[in-house]
């Protein structure tokens, strides 16, 4: 028998497949748990109409109004395009818009003083939330 005419036969055992699958699942879930991703709400697409309401967390409030305006108080986020860019608690008025990102709806806030910030729609414990990041340690603000 020549080398080219040999047939290599793999043995398939269902128990090997199940064991391999279980090990792969444990490895992947260990990687996920060790990265800190569980603190982030699961991305969600929401309708613009469902965003129009008052969102709260402690003293932080965000009122997204039907006319495209908003009122905010004490929202800690990383802000851009304004004097003193960076992380701060901020309040004020401005306009908002929503768009569909890659994995979730996004809400762009444009304050009257020129500052901008982005929040994302997600789900935490079965409830829709808006959330945003700030800080080097990826801290988050979550509004319900």
Characterization of the model:
- By secondary structure, the protein is an alpha+beta fold.
- The chain is built from 2 helices and 9 strands.
- A hairpin with a 4-residue loop joins strand 5 and strand 6 (105-111).
- It is globular.
- It starts with 13 loop residues before the first helix and ends with a strand.
Distance between the termini: 72 Å
The ordered string of helix (H) and strand (E) elements is HEHEEEEEEEE
Number of strands: 9
Counting structural domains, the number is: 2
Q: Biggest sheet, in brief?
A: 9 strands, antiparallel
Cα shape: globular
Oligomer: single chain
Radius of gyration: 23 Å
Residue windows where pLDDT falls under 50 for at least 5 positions? 21-35
Strand content: over 45%
What count of helical segments does DSSP give?
2
Report the mean per-residue pLDDT as an integer.
80
Helix content: 10-25%
Topology:
Layout: H1 14-35, E1 42-43, H2 48-51, E2 54-57, E3 60-64, E4 69-79, E5 86-100, E6 105-111, E7 116-124, E8 127-134, E9 139-143
Antiparallel strand pairs: 1-7, 2-3, 3-4, 4-5, 5-6, 6-7, 7-8, 8-9
Which features would summarize this protein structure in a list?
144 residues, alpha+beta, 2 domains, nine-stranded antiparallel beta sheet, 2 helices, 9 strands, 18% helix, 46% strand, globular
């Amino acid at each position: 028998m020549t080398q080219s005419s040999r047939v290599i036969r793999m043995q398939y055992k269902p128990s090997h497949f199940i064991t391999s699958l279980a090990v792969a699942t444990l490895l992947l879930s260990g990687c996920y748990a060790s990265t800190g991703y569980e603190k982030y709400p699961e991305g969600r697409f929401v309708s613009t109409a469902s965003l129009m309401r008052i969102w709260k967390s402690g003293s932080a409030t965000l009122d997204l109004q039907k006319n495209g305006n908003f009122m905010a108080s004490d929202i800690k986020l990383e802000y851009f395009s304004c004097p003193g860019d960076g992380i701060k608690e901020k309040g004020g008025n401005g306009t908002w818009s929503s768009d569909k990102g890659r994995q979730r709806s996004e809400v762009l806030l444009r304050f009257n003083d020129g500052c901008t910030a982005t929040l994302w729609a997600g789900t935490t414990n079965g409830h829709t939330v808006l959330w945003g990041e700030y800080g080097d340690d990826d801290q988050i603000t979550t509004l319900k």
